[in-house]
Amino acid sequence: MRNLGKTKDESMVKFLCEEARRSPEPQLMAAAGEALGNYEASDQKVRKEIVNNLLIRYGELDSRSRVLDSADIEAANARDYLAVISDKWNSTLGRLTGQNFRQYPEWNTWFNKNRAADWSK
After folding, report:
1. How far apart are CA 70 and CA 100, in angstroms?
2. 49 CB-near residues (< 8 Å, 6+ apart)
3. Running DSSP on this structure, what letter comes out for residue 12?
4. Residues whose CB falls within 8 Å of the CB of residue 102, separated by 6 or more in sequence, listed in order
């Protein structure tokens, strides 16, 4: 998965985003997210698409992980997924945006404010 990103072939962005968002394995999600960090030199339209896709899934997991019911297996699974993916995804989001946040709410707030902004500056 990581090697696909190293090619910087933009035709692979859709596949990598799908793997990052929908893979049942958190290690594959993390690897796909990490691979997407290699597109930091791509046009900002491509980078914005990647960031948007990652933040959608990141937000779903973050929201589920905040449920404090110890019997809620989905919340426990979301916390497990976040433990595996968050460092790699935060790194990728940083490479693509030039920002340095460590939590989903910070990324989401920044993205909502800067979605239409010029990221090349």
Report:
1. 32
2. 13, 17
3. G
4. 86, 90
